[in-house]
């Protein structure tokens, strides 16, 4: 899952870094606020833990071995900010010590394994495990499902990042300049590998690790300082949403044709030979779109698409931040645990 | 003979005992080997000090990496790669480069090999392998570009990390704008990584010593989960001990950056040389295209 240098274009790396850097900054300050002076040693040890977990080869059913990431376990036990910082530092070491994951591609690896993975894993854990008072078996199952979902989501993100390269970055003869495989190959390949091999490995590590901490009475102690969950981290959640929307943006450039049911009047007339009267009347009712057809008048269509996609992504991330922030405040005001 | 003295049925005809398949701990051996590699890499001999200022090295490395990523011509990427490998040999880090680059290149080769075939990516067949098909010129060109770029980028990373001490490299990260908290966490994580790695290795060795005949896959998975949990608990304990030691030494939670050393003229010249070489490569790439 670690993307080395050479597989992604510098443009892709720059976009990923633009999401990763604020995520690390927000997470660092959040943890520092939560645990005060204890933050530095705790994050350092968690980073070392994350690094070592990634070195741990786990036996999987087909006789081979796979390694887990452990970021979902950290997120479930200590919260999303701790998972973001710990996994980011571990990825930095991996890139520099073992050459596992690139230096330029560091931002992309952080987005996949330190942001999307714990975010998705924690959300699924909260969904499956319910509240803090849920019985232990249910929480253990929640950790397993969360770990599985988190690593599969991260694998799919890698598949999308690699798969858009040949369509977006190629020379005049059409020869890909970076990863050579299109989305139709990278997404199924990554999905298969993570659904069958890496997913079970992460599920085992998350569930057994969580279960061990609970059985030995360390869970309450370890997570004593951790108060906030998804709604307590509006900055990180909105950055995760921004990462996902930016990840999906290039798909619009690759897709051809119009989606079913989204034809304009002329396209529909060309297909069925006539335009229904009601559709002709109401299709022109609102014409004041700020960015019509995902473009900007007078700007190159591709550049316009990118700009409108960026504006849309920022808008969605901003709305997510607002909703999470408001929900967190309302929960606190009502005296509820922020989950 | 009384009825009580007859053998019960389950003892007279014992059911066959099913012994689960037990395998040797291949994953334990692999993990222990990687831990040993980690200990060597983190050891004091693992990073020779170079003469360049680490800030200049870091920025120059990033500039070169971006230039390598922007190059399109396979000949120019290969030339840059060869130059970097010669530089690595001159700084006596070719051995480290071989250790890091071999698995990465093998993985890349396996990944890009199918893309050279006309069945995967149609093009002009230059190496016929079956009727109407084989390796294409476009596929081979792409594979060469990716392989050369991966090798060149790895060489830059190895040159940067193996000729600079970790502490100086992390200080350079701070100097170029990385958040203070992030750099401090990375510095401390590096310092205690070997402590936690030793504890982890002890855990694995104890497991290996206590199960001579191997274990079933299910037992192994159970152990892995418990080991990860134990490691997480141990890291929490260690964090608490370190925090208490920091407070005892007077740590108040305030982070202070050491005053940066001024850059020497020779460092600036060397950095500018790297930037100029990168610009020259990019200009050559534009001309060739």
Task: Describe the structure in your own words.
With 339 residues, chain A is mostly helical. Chain A has a domain of 218 residues: Orthogonal Bundle (Arp2/3 complex 21 kDa subunit ARPC3). Chain A is 68% helix and 2% strand. Chain A is built from 13 helices and 2 strands. In chain A, strands 1-2 form a two-stranded antiparallel sheet. In chain A, helix 3 crosses helix 8, helix 5 packs antiparallel against helix 6 and helix 6 runs antiparallel to helix 8. Chain B is mainly alpha-helical and 289 residues long. Chain B has one domain. Chain B has 10 helices and 2 strands. Chain B has a two-stranded antiparallel sheet with strand order 1-2. The mean pLDDT of chain B is 80. At the A-B interface, helix 1, helix 2, strand 1, helix 3 and helix 4 of A face helix 2, helix 3, helix 5, helix 6 and helix 8 of B.
Count, helices of chain A:
13
Oligomer state of the chains in this structure: heterodimer
| CATH topology grouping of the domain at 10-227 in chain A | Arp2/3 complex 21 kDa subunit ARPC3
Strand content of chain B: under 5%
């Amino acid at each position: 899952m670690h993307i080395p240098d050479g597989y992604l274009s510098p443009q892709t790396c720059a976009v990923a870094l633009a999401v990763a850097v604020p995520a690390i900054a927000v997470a660092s300050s959040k943890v520092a606020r939560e645990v005060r002076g204890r933050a530095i040693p705790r994050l350092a040890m968690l980073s070392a833990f994350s690094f070592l977990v990634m070195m741990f080869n786990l036996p999987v059913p087909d006789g081979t071995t796979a390694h887990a990431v452990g970021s979902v376990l950290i997120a479930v036990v200590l919260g999303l900010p701790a998972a973001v910082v710990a996994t980011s530092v571990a990825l930095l070491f991996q890139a520099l010590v073992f050459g596992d994951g690139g230096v330029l591609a560091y931002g992309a690896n952080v987005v996949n394994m330190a942001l999307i993975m714990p975010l998705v894993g924690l959300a699924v854990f909260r969904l499956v495990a319910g509240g803090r008072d849920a019985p232990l078996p249910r929480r253990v199952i929640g950790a397993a499902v969360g770990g599985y979902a988190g690593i599969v989501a991260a694998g799919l993100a890698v598949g999308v990042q690699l798969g858009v390269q040949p369509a977006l970055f190629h020379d005049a003869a059409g020869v890909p300049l970076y990863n050579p495989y299109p989305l139709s190959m990278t997404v199924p390949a990554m999905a298969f590998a993570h659904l069958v091999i890496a997913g079970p490995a992460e599920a085992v590590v998350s569930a057994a690790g969580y279960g061990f901490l609970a059985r030995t009475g360390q869970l309450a102690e370890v997570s004593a300082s951790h108060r906030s969950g998804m709604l307590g981290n509006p900055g990180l959640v909105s950055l995760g949403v921004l990462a996902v929307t930016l990840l999906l943006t290039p798909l619009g450039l690759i897709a051809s044709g119009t989606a079913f049911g989204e034809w304009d009047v002329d396209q529909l007339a060309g297909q069925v030979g006539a335009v229904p009267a009601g559709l002709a009347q109401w299709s022109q009712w609102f014409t004041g779109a700020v960015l019509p057809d995902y473009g900007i008048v007078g700007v190159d269509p591709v550049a316009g698409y990118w700009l409108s996609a960026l504006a849309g992504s920022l808008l969605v991330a901003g709305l997510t931040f607002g909703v999470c922030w408001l929900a967190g405040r309302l929960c606190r005001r009502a005296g509820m645990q922020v989950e | 003979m009384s009825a009580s003295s007859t053998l019960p049925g389950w003892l007279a005809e014992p059911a066959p005992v099913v012994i689960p398949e037990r395998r040797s701990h291949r994953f334990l051996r692999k993990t222990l080997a990687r831990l040993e590699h980690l200990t060597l890499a983190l050891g004091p001999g693992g990073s020779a000090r170079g003469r360049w200022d680490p800030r200049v090295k870091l920025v120059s490395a990033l500039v070169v990496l971006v230039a390598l990523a922007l190059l399109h011509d396979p000949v120019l990427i290969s030339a840059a790669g060869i130059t970097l490998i010669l530089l690595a040999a001159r700084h006596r880090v070719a051995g480290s480069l071989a250790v890091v680059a071999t698995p990465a290149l093998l993985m890349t080769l396996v990944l890009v090999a199918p893309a050279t075939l006309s069945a995967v990516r149609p093009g002009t067949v230059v190496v016929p392998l079956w009727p109407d098909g084989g390796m294409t010129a476009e596929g081979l060109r792409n594979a060469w570009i990716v392989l050369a770029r991966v090798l060149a980028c790895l060489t830059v990373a190895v040159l940067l990390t193996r000729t600079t001490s970790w502490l100086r490299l992390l200080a350079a990260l701070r100097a170029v704008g990385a958040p203070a908290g992030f750099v401090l966490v990375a510095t401390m994580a590096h310092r205690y990584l070997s402590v936690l790695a030793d504890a982890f290795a002890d855990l694995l060795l104890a497991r290996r010593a206590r199960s001579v005949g191997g274990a079933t896959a299910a037992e192994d998975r159970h152990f892995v989960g418990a080991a990860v949990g134990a490691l997480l608990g141990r890291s929490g304990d260690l964090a608490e001990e370190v925090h208490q030691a920091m407070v005892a030494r007077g740590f108040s939670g305030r982070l202070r950056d050491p005053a940066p050393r001024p850059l020497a003229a020779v460092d600036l010249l060397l950095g500018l040389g790297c930037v100029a070489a990168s610009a020259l490569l990019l200009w050559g790439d534009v001309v060739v295209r």
